[in-house]
Amino acid sequence: MSATAVAKKPETTDTPPPRAKAPTFDEAMVAIDWHGQSTKHLFCRAPSGLIADDLKQRGIWDRVQRNPIKALRPYDTVRIVGPDQTWTATALVAESDQSGAALVDVKIVQLPPTARQLFRDSTYAVEFDGFKFIVVRISDGRRMTDGASNVEQAERDLRGLYPKRVT
Predict the structure, then answer these.
(1) Whole-angstrom distance, CA of residue 15 vs CA of residue 148
(2) Per residue in 24-81, pLDDT tens?
């Protein structure tokens, strides 16, 4: 009886180290798009720092689940737009409780970056906060306007922040 030795290749793991806790969704950034009596469709702006892979974590929805109107329920549909607007995801809620929700059938679509640069000068900058265009003072990051539905209105609001010449 002859025994042949088989050399085993050492096992290596090329998996990246686990990320720190993912940012959680703020219930104020979730709007309800009602389309039926038994389920709802929710539109969500993802918080800054959230990546599409974080959608696998139930806990990112814990703050939303505290709101009885916006809480995710089984069979609800969720559309999520990434914080930098480079991706969007559509998913179905499989199960949910007070601490979070599990999404299934997640479809992620990469979006092209926007070609238009938002206005910026040495004092103020127009930014998109997830729902509207706002003007921010660059020196301290303070929000200077309530927000506008489009870029042109935000730029008009920005011009109104500068003193007017009196002739």
Answers:
(1) 43
(2) 888 887 877 666 667 788 999 888 888 899 999 999 999 999 999 899 999 999 999 8
Q: If you write DSSP's letter for every residue of 42-53 in order, what string do you get?
A: EEEEPPTT--GG
> For domain 27-110, which architecture applies?
Beta Barrel (2.40)
- Fill in the DSSP letter of residue 120: B
DSSP-derived secondary structure for 30-84 = EEEE---SS--EEEEEPPTT--GGGGG-GGGGHHHHTSTTT---TT-EEEEE-TT
Torsion angle of the four alpha carbons 106, 81, 61, 50, in this order, in degrees rounded to the nearest 10: 100
Q: Is 42 exposed, middle or buried (0-12, 13-18, 19+ CB in 10 A)?
A: buried
| Portions of the chain given CATH number 2.40.240 | 27-110
